[in-house]
Request: fold
Amino acid sequence: MNYIQRMAVPDAQDPIQRLESPHFEDVSVGYELHLAKPPITRLQIAKFAGASGDFNPSHVDEDIAREIGGMGGVFAHGMIGMGFIGQMLTDWLGPRALRMFSTRALIIVRPGDALACFGIVTKKWVEDEDNLIELEVGARNQKGDLTHSGRAVAALPHRPLVIRDTLKRPYLVQHRVIG
Amino acid sequence: MSINMNALGAETPWLPVIVTQRQIDALCSCLEDYNPMFLDEEAAAHDGGVVAPPTFINCFRDLKTNLVLSEAEVDLPLLLHGEQAINYYKEIRPGDEIVHKLKIIDVGRKKSRTFGELDFFTVLIKVHSKSGERLVEATQLFFVRDK
Reply:
């Protein structure tokens, strides 16, 4: 059974995920990422509780959340939003490029809130042998309020070195021979 | 109710876990992230096989609730997640035998953006391979409301 059957992946799922990282030389500062997720459901919150083991009643028990939590009912784990931002990053970067990823949960996300994730490349540099990019990331709810803000650093490959035909001049070849 | 400031330095032992595809499926299903690199051995074969998504570290918290409840004496409904920073050293794959531990590395009181002055504590989470190689390490900052 393939994963589409195993996970009952909806037909409408946009197959934008890439299997390889973008090349470092193709990415410029200012490049933007976006991922709009559908409204968060109570089912999703329950699933995250199961996946993470975080059964804090603030997220899963409406009664306790109202009476003791005092936040006016259940709200989503902050890490669900971070997971969405992570998805935006791995959709573009591929699954193994991330070196650092941090988020700050700013305001509560409730069932029914739809998060729009965003990222922008803010820096490009080389450290030791790694080609690194830094991104500012975050998410906004349907009212436009910032729910998460954060930062990510990823290492990207450069295309392999190729001596182009136009550069295959006698002196270049000689130079290589001479060393 | 304030938290127990003596929780500073409290830690769990290293706990061995075997990473399963089922755990990864559960997280991906929740996030509705159907990237085949997390789910499909065949599609991921050219890249050394399936890897765990970047926020998979949240699935290693078997001991966190115990640490938080018994050492920091936190009333769970008053707990708020503040920040999380994750550093990646090497990918985690299904079938990996890993060990993980948690430690409370900071406690105190400080201002939050939304709720004024609150108690906080920071948990360090380390995920290493069985042979001691660093895979992923993260810190999580939590706030605890006074009520």
User: Anything to note?
Assistant: Residues 17 and 62 of chain B are 10 Å apart (CA to CA). The radius of gyration of chain B is 17 Å.
